[in-house]
Design a protein that fits this description.
The protein is mainly alpha-helical and 285 residues long. It folds into 2 domains: 1-128, no CATH class; 130-272. The protein has 8 helices and no strands.
Length: 285
């Protein structure tokens, strides 16, 4: 994912103008941009082989039942991602393909993390007992997850439409207003900033509300720290005029946020449901 961001930041998305070959060759002549794009494709191929090996090993070791859902999702997402990668080249970096490529790549990464956690817990001698997660925490985890998904979508649109400097100043957009318009490229950038603030606020609310929720609390605080860091990197992207290193770091942090928050979502999904007390019997404090 980080290499994909570097490909985009270096303007190397069409350095190999055809697909699946590069200049009609399996191994083309290299310059820096071709090397970025070609390496990105090679790593994608290695990931595909790795997933095939993982699926075979899970079947041979009798663990397929344990990871069937997330592993099946990973396989499906990989197929879609490969198709989107080809379309991104063949359609000459159409914004919808670039954005979809980012979203599906992030989802694929999350599915692999879910598989790894399932396998890790399957190796434990005792089943992991999860405490009840309060309804408020469950709701906030869902809200933050939705806002993060929306933020990655908006970030992909900002990048694919070259709107990274649609607002050329920070914290204001044009030196006078925080939101001079919601139309066009400037509006797209403004929406990205507004949702970032909303996401940061909900992240803080989640960290505070979940402070007594064990594993979810730790993940919520890590998410908040990453959000603060990401907000700072986003500001530096504007102030430093989109340096390549900051652009790649911005993508890496987005992936880290998605992975961390997905672990919190997983804890909420797998937590045992609270049992209702019998009629006339008060619940324990």
């Amino acid at each position: 994912m980080v290499l994909g961001a570097l490909v985009r930041a270096h303007g190397a998305g069409l350095s190999c103008p055809d697909w699946p070959l590069c200049f009609g060759q399996l191994v083309p002549e290299m310059d820096m941009r071709v090397a970025f794009e070609y390496t990105h494709r090679v790593i994608a191929g290695c990931v595909s082989l790795g997933l095939a090996g993982l699926s075979f090993a899970a079947w041979r070791l009798g663990l397929l039942g344990r990871v069937r859902a997330p592993l099946g999702a990973a396989c499906l997402l990989l197929v879609v991602q490969v198709v989107l990668g080809g379309l991104t080249v063949l359609l000459r970096l159409a914004p919808w393909t670039v954005t979809a490529h980012l979203l599906v790549g992030t989802s694929f990464c999350v599915s692999l993390l879910w598989v790894s956690r399932d396998l890790f817990e399957a190796a434990r001698e005792r089943a992991l007992v999860r405490p009840v997660v309060p309804a408020a925490v469950r709701g906030l985890v869902g809200a933050v997850a939705f806002l993060l998904l929306l933020q990655i979508l908006l970030g992909g649109l900002v990048s694919s439409h070259a709107a990274g400097l649609g607002c050329a100043q920070f914290p204001t957009c044009d030196g006078e207003s925080f939101a001079p318009t919601l139309d066009g490229l400037v509006g797209l950038h403004v929406l990205h900033r507004m949702n970032a603030l909303l996401l940061l606020g909900f992240g803080a609310g989640l960290a505070w509300t979940a402070r007594a929720s064990g594993r979810v609390a730790a993940l919520a605080w890590t998410t908040l720290r990453l959000l603060v860091f990401q907000f700072g990197v986003g500001a530096l992207n504007v102030l430093l005029r989109l340096p390549v290193e900051m652009t790649a770091l911005h993508t890496a942090l987005a992936a880290a946020l998605a992975l961390t928050l997905s672990l919190a979502v997983r804890e909420v999904v797998l937590a045992r449901a609270p049992r209702s007390a019998p009629a006339g019997v008060p619940e324990a404090a």
